[in-house]
Amino acid sequence: MKIQKKQFNQSNVIFSLAMLGIFLFSLTLRFWELERFNDLVFDEVYYAKFANNYLTKTPFFNAHPPLSQYIIAIGIWIGTHLPFGQTAVNSKAGSLLSPWDYRWLNALTGSFIPLVVGALAYQLVRRRTFAFIAALLIACDGLFLVESRYALNNIYLVLFGILGQLFILKAVEAEGKKRWLWLVLAGIGFGASAAIKWNGLWFLFGTYLILICAWTVRFIQGNRGNEEQSREVDSPLIPAESPVQKLTKLNFIELCLSLAIIPILVYSISWIPHLYFNPTPNFWQMQTEILTYHQRIKSGPDVHPYCSTWYSWPLMLRPIVYFFRKATNNAQPDPVLPPLPEGATEVIFDVHAMGNPLLWWLSTLALLLVIGVLVHRIWVWLQTRSEASVDTIEQQRPILFPPTAEMWLGLYLIVNWAANLLPWVKVTRCIFLYHYMGCSVFAALALAWWVDRWLHSPQTRLRGMGVTIIFLVLGAFIFWMPIYLGLPLSQMEWKIRMWLPSWV
Question: What is the mean pLDDT of residues 10-15?
Fold first, then answer.
């Protein structure tokens, strides 16, 4: 018993150190030369300006809910009082600010996203290796890195949405006051995600759908007596119950509180500071004007050169160029750019908002495999309609027929991925690759699940596949890192990273 406890503590320490390493890795990349471009990059022309408008009490129209701009404004206020980060300044946001001032809080916040995704992975199946791999994959995604290094709002949308889902899953494992605490935090997370952008609601939508799935399965299976449930818990053939299954344990009041009342309150309250500085239009008029504004926006290259279609996102066919500039050594120094490398005659500074190509492509393939396994599982269940025979298959063929808890994980990933993607089918305005960021989390979790299973497989070939995928993702991240961080590249170095014509 003491040996087992010692091994558990040792494993816990190793896991904690590994997750700390991922956090420090993410933190370093996000803060490295954060002032690199002394300019407003891409949508910083909106969000950094709007955030500063709140500080200067300048009236303006906001085409999105205001929460992310409040957060950036807090970062600006703190940043201007710090004794560092003021090596370069500009007045493009409406006041004399350093890029550090309006970027540092995003960089810090984005550094936590791999840990939050890892926590969600652990909550789903209680496997440390799965949680570590999931966190590592998100830490090696270029789009999350780029979005975290500038005063943009998508990282907040994803962070709050994932936290909402994590907290609702933790609530079903708790009792009494702790359950109510997690339910309140879940509601705050969902409401905050919607208060960043309306598409933050997709995380709440995904929770509704998975809840419906859980109740549907429970209805089909029927309620079993306490005696049978007690017998099954002690049976080695019955796998641990998934927290996704346990969502049906939440009563009507708890569901209304966490999935409706609190999100609505948080969203509504988030508008109070904006309406204080901009009393007209009022709250309801603002919602109407935001909807009308986005309905008026068309799509296509005439609207924006980097508009993309929703079905192209899983294959990352059209990333976004956030910053692009050529510099030569015989031209006047550009105050926006860092100095040219010694000996360089002409370089390209490029910031591409694109994911890690191999990570995204492999994640899409992993999703398709999860769908295949899930369909196979449902087919077997329909054929047998006997839990005993299903459990026997789980024990005899664990590679081809994963246990019930992991099938709930697969269902959870597919449902939430679809909930974050399919609403865009009907959207007619110009949309961008970063709208796939929520989906990419669940796709990366699907890949992490396969890699984790393969690494624990008795088959050498599968273990080799798991290791190979990890190194491919790490290698791709290093290869494309210059266009995530905006490092100086020669024309040839830049071209070899543009694998598809649509990436330019």
Answer: 88
